[in-house]
Design goal:
The complex is a heterodimer. Chain A is α+β, with helices and mostly antiparallel strands. Chain A has 3 domains: about 190 residues, no CATH class; about 60 residues; about 160 residues, Pleckstrin-homology domain (PH domain)/Phosphotyrosine-binding domain (PTB) (PH-domain like, Roll). Helices cover about 40% and strands about 25% of the residues of chain A. In chain A, the strands form 4 sheets. A 7-stranded antiparallel β-sheet of chain A has the order 7-6-5-11-10-9-8, with helices on both faces. A 6-stranded antiparallel β-sheet of chain A has the order 14-13-12-17-16-15. The longest helix of chain A is centred in the middle third of the chain and has 26 residues. Chain A is globular and about 85 Å long. Chain B has 2 domains: about 50 residues, no CATH class; about 80 residues, PH-domain like (Roll), CATH 2.30.29. Helices cover about 45% and strands about 25% of the residues of chain B. Chain B has a 4-stranded antiparallel β-sheet with strand order 1-2-3-4. Chain B has a 3-stranded antiparallel β-sheet with strand order 5-6-7. In chain B, a hairpin with a 6-residue loop joins β6 and β7. In chain B, α2 runs antiparallel to α3. Chain B is elongated. The chains are: A alpha+beta, B alpha+beta. The interface between A and B is large, with 46 and 33 residues. β18 of chain A pairs antiparallel with β4 of chain B, so a sheet runs across the interface.
Chain lengths: ~475, ~170
């Protein structure tokens, strides 16, 4: 029984190679189908095999969890039972995969992307294109081999990401271009002809710089040191190999994830600007192509670890409903600021920050040196962190609410904090400002966020 | 100094008209305090008198003192709550020791809720809760008259529609 599934999956994963080559290129047949209004399309035929590994994983997990019983069960199996299992499982799985693929359709209308899926429980998702926050194409390693890609759509308020997995590589690109063109407000008939917008490359991170920057990060060395020191100490204390293994392996895994894992994920990081928005392509094994349409970014953070100071910065961003968080893994400050100017139109990163008054040292000793604030016509910028400095920017047009808080000790010292709540669950805080200044700031910020919104770009940025 | 002096002329609008909370909330909270701490005082006093001797029963004064202190605190806290409807945003101010003042622009409201639990209903109270796209926005006005809560909800929704903005 347990050997049936590996065999079936090995069998099935070999087959998709042949059809994928034929369908990855959307030929004339595809474009003829598109002529009809609201034509429904299907996913790539490789799709049924995407979960082929799941039963194998379940069996493997069970075998690892309880090795003795697994062996017992294995010896009890006879060849006939095996064959019978094979005869039931393989066609069953194939039928299920085929049917779920067969019943999944998607269609692009003028305003919506409709996904119809489900064999027994039907589910129809209508995604409004003007609410689209970002479109990503991701290609896990195996999908790259098979020549297919996954299209992920970020919409505010949905927990589960709607994704189209898998599409042919070329088809995924065309669909992304079409979705973005329609979201931008191009007329439906021309949306397909607009094609992929030209990309102007803003930034490329060379592998050497990325490796050097990771070597200069405290987290890399910290996790590595922890992975070496903690198991050694445990060995000295307990002399039990199991304890050492149980703590050492996760620590080693964490160390690997924070150094090698980050290198692999952020390898060949390219940021490009196109009328569709910002294009971010990265990855060594799994390739990801993200697109952030203009005006969707809620907050941007410039992170400057101690050892990078003066040389490089890292830029993180928050888009509502999206999990993408890195904009630039490492770049010189001027280059990073140019990218920020592209992602937040009209925003310049303030050069000089206002420190809190000296008496703030009574509230937060030492760390108050790291606090800073600058407000320009377009952006509210607050910095915190003593060693690892983080400057958070939130455009006035993105402020959802403004708060002023003041604890008893702060009131005694005549200080207050101002918080700007932005979408995507982020809050930017200017800490320990003078109380009168903070009060003025609260009023001015409420005003600015109102006027900022009035001048903000429309949802359909090309219309 | 580039922190917010640019628009002082506009922000120096007339001082907002603050509205406090109706006394119903204070009455409910004080009643709850007295009932629970009164029960605690009696149980502690009885148990100590029975099992440890009448002298120990004096410790029952502790919850009583707590009740007296809480009585004052509740009053201060209740007085600190106030809200103001301005032309474009709603102000909520609260807190005695830890003060907090929240400004929510009408255009940013995603949802306005009026809630009223069984206890609140019994005392004729309702709370208005505002939601924006930011989870950190914690704008809630408790203990309003149900009629006032509904008026506020309708007005906020109306203003929100008129000034609606995306994310």
């Amino acid at each position: 029984m347990s050997t049936a599934s590996p065999d079936s999956s090995g069998h099935t994963s070999a087959t998709p190679g042949s059809p994928s080559g034929a369908t990855a290129l959307p030929g004339g047949d595809d474009s003829v189908r598109e002529e009809k209004p609201l034509s429904e399309r299907r996913l790539h035929p490789v799709t049924p095999f995407r979960r082929a590994w799941a039963p194998v994983a379940v069996l493997a997990g069970w075998a690892v969890h309880d090795p003795n019983q697994a062996q017992e069960q294995l010896t009890r199996l006879t060849t006939t039972a095996l064959l019978l299992g094979l005869a039931v499982i393989v066609p069953g799985a194939a039928l299920y995969g085929f049917l779920s693929w067969w019943f999944t359709h998607f269609a692009v209308t003028d305003t919506e992307l409709r996904i119809r899926t489900g064999l027994l429980f039907r589910r129809t998702a209508h995604i409004r294109l003007e609410r689209l926050q970002a479109v990503d194409i991701t290609q896990p390693l195996l999908a790259r081999v098979a020549g297919v890609a996954k299209l992920k759509l970020d919409v505010v308020g949905t927990d589960k990401k709607d994704e189209l997995a898998y599409l042919g590589e070329g088809e995924a690109r065309m669909l992304r271009a079409e979705l973005l063109a329609r979201a931008a407000g191009f007329a439906p008939e021309s949306a397909r002809e607009v094609g992929e917008a030209p990309v102007h490359r803003l930034l490329h991170v060379p592998p050497g710089v990325l490796a050097a920057s990771l070597l200069l990060t405290g987290a890399t060395w910290g996790s590595l040191a922890a992975a070496l020191v903690v198991p050694t100490l445990l060995w000295l204390a307990t002399h039990s190999a199991w304890t050492v293994l149980a703590t050492g392996l996760p620590l080693l895994g964490a160390a690997g994830a924070s150094s090698v894992g980050r290198f692999v994920a952020e390898y060949d990081w390219t940021v490009g600007e196109s009328p569709d928005g910002l294009r971010i392509d990265h990855g060594l094994l799994d390739r990801t192509h993200e697109t952030v349409p203009p005006g969707r970014v809620q907050t941007v953070r410039i992170v400057e670890p101690l050892l990078w100071r003066g040389r490089w910065v890292r830029v993180e961003l928050d888009v509502a409903g999206s999990s993408n968080s890195v904009l630039v893994p490492v770049a010189p400050r001027e280059v990073a600021e140019a990218v920020i100017a592209a992602v937040l139109p009209g925003v310049t990163v303030p050069a000089a920050l206002d420190r809190p008054p000296r008496r703030a040292g009574w509230c937060v000793p030492f760390w108050w040196h790291g606090y800073g604030l600058a407000v320009t016509d377009t952006v509210f910028a607050a910095r915190h962190g003593l060693l690892r400095r983080r400057l958070s920017l939130v455009p006035h047009a993105k402020a959802q609410s403004v708060r002023l808080t003041q604890g008893p000790w702060e009131r005694f010292k005549g200080l207050a904090d101002v918080h700007i709540d932005a979408g995507a669950g982020k809050t930017v805080t200017a800490r320990l400002r003078d109380a009168a200044e903070a009060r003025e700031l609260l009023q001015a910020q409420a005003d600015r966020s109102r006027t900022g919104r009035r001048e903000a770009r429309p949802d359909r940025w090309m219309a | 100094m580039n922190t917010g002096s640019a628009r002082t002329d506009e922000s120096a609008m007339p001082e907002p008209v603050w509205t406090g909370l109706p006394p119903g909330l204070l009455r409910m909270r004080r009643l709850l305090l007295v009932v629970w701490l009164g029960l605690l005082t009696i149980t502690v006093g009885l148990l100590l008198a029975l099992f440890a001797g009448p002298g120990w029963a004096a410790f029952a004064l502790l919850p009583l003192a707590l009740a007296a202190w809480g009585w004052r605190m509740l009053g201060r806290n209740w007085r600190s709550w106030r809200y103001a409807e301005r032309a474009d945003d709603l102000l909520i101010s609260r807190g005695v020791l830890w003060r907090e003042e929240t400004v929510v622009p009408y255009g940013r409201m995603q949802l306005v809720e009026v809630t009223s639990g069984p206890l609140e209903r019994h005392f004729g109270l309702a709370s208005v809760q505002l939601h924006t796209a930011a989870a950190a926005t914690d704008a809630c006005i408790p203990g309003l008259d149900p009629a006032e809560a509904e008026r506020l909800r309708d007005r906020l929704t109306e203003l929100g529609e008129a000034r609606s903005a995306g994310l």
